[in-house]
Amino acid sequence: MSATRRWSTALAATALIGGALGAAPAAAEPAAAPCDPSGTAYRHVVLFTPGTPEWAATREISRKCGKTDSYYREIGVAVATSADPTFESRFTLERAYSAEKAAKALAATSRLVAPTAEVSARGVTEDLSPRSWDMRQIKADEANKINVGSRRVVVGVLDSGVDADHPDLKAAVDPALSAGCTTGHPDQSKPAWMPSNSSHGTHVAGTIAAAKDGQGITGVAPGVRLASVKVVNDEGMIYPESAVCGFMWSGAKGFQVTNSSWFMDPWMFWCKDKPGEKVGHEAVRRAISYSVRNGSLNVAAVGNSAIDLANTTRDPAKPHPVNENCDEAPAEFAGVVGVSATGYAKKLSGYSSYGKGVVDVTAPGGDGAQPPPAGEGTGCPLSTLPGGRYGTACGTSMASPHAAGVAALLASKYRGAPPQALAWLLGHQADELPCPAGDARCTGPAKDNAFFGKGLVNALKAVS
């Protein structure tokens, strides 16, 4: 799907799935079997017609043996818990689905990148920016001399939590705008949105907005604010209910930019023509559309499976047939800017996925096979880790926040610009990177190809 079509689709009216969702049952419907609370309690997403009153949704869920944890009336999506093994069948898999239950059956495990602790001492006072080749690659160091970004701009870091006590992040993270979403319901208590056992979100956050203070590292847009929106649970999994909560929170709070360095579990691809999966697909599609309508530019990593997302027939995460009706969530969804990764040499990183019409821009994610010169760090970008530490990691997870940081600079310069305009500027100002000679995987012209999309993001152009 082309980027233009993806953005126009994001603003279309919310589609219904499986007919008139939430419609009253027929008068002749037989009495339902008694509830069976003996099973394992799982969270589900449940679809209703957008605008269905909360009382009506809650009543139907209760009658079908569930408990409503959260309800988003604007998009007609509920998060419900039930221990009844027949809960999904009472709604049918056209309306209710538990990704948590599917993950347990598949024995799915986390696939988040684990940064390495290159600098482990707390309270580092050394300026580590000489090791930040990634910032120089997109001219962030030059951009920071002109504009560090505006405090009115907020970037939602939808991830595993951000350490708000890190010296390089404490001025950026806004607790009043942060929330934990792992249950599908926003929780603003600090423990709910701080990292527990993953450094992933803190690494991502530092790339976007680590302080420009002459110590540690400096982010792409050190003057903007961050909101920690924790969507990754303690098992490292991201389920539809967490993603829905994260995008709805971002839209409701008016975040100008969000970053999602993950794909939704337990699959990599969610198919809108398969029972159950179509429920998770539709729920997240609606939430992303809501965030776009409320002014959020959503940026996401395209993944580390080195596959062509535009022509995929298999799911590298789990044995799972894939066809043209399946999308990687959220990178392939309408209203999302997909980001691939480059290494020091500005070549596509060996692990990076790609795809014509899926990749909108590229950014440095690092590659051990493209090492920088001595003194400029390792092949993987350096960023913040919990506990005042710093470490390196490679991945499209690291590329995406570079693009989100540039988008934040654009939002700082063009106050009130809608997400569609920011997405256009991000691609229009990117430095074109042509397909490498002789690589048949890469198709398209220098300014719009399968590997790099519109090109390498450029922070200096964003502020000039």
UniProtKB/TrEMBL annotation:
Record flagged with keyword Cytoplasm: no
Family in the record: Belongs to the peptidase S8 family.
Keywords: Hydrolase, Protease, Serine protease, Signal
Residue numbers spanned by region Disordered: 182-201
Swiss-Prot/TrEMBL GO biological process terms: proteolysis
Superkingdom of origin organism: Bacteria
Protein name, entry field: Subtilisin family serine protease
One Pfam entry name: Peptidase_S8
InterPro entries: Peptidase_S8/S53_dom (IPR000209), Peptidase_S8/S53_dom_sf (IPR036852), Peptidase_S8_Asp-AS (IPR023827), Peptidase_S8_His-AS (IPR022398), Peptidase_S8_Ser-AS (IPR023828), Peptidase_S8_subtilisin-like (IPR050131), Peptidase_S8_subtilisin-rel (IPR015500)
A molecular-function term among this protein's GO annotations: serine-type endopeptidase activity
Active-site positions on this chain: D159, H200, S397
Cross-referenced SUPFAM superfamilies: Subtilisin-like (SSF52743)
PROSITE patterns referenced in this protein's UniProt entry, alphabetically: SUBTILASE (PS51892), SUBTILASE_ASP (PS00136), SUBTILASE_HIS (PS00137), SUBTILASE_SER (PS00138)
Residues in Peptidase S8/S53 domain copies: 151-439
Secretion signal, residue range per the UniProt entry: 1-28
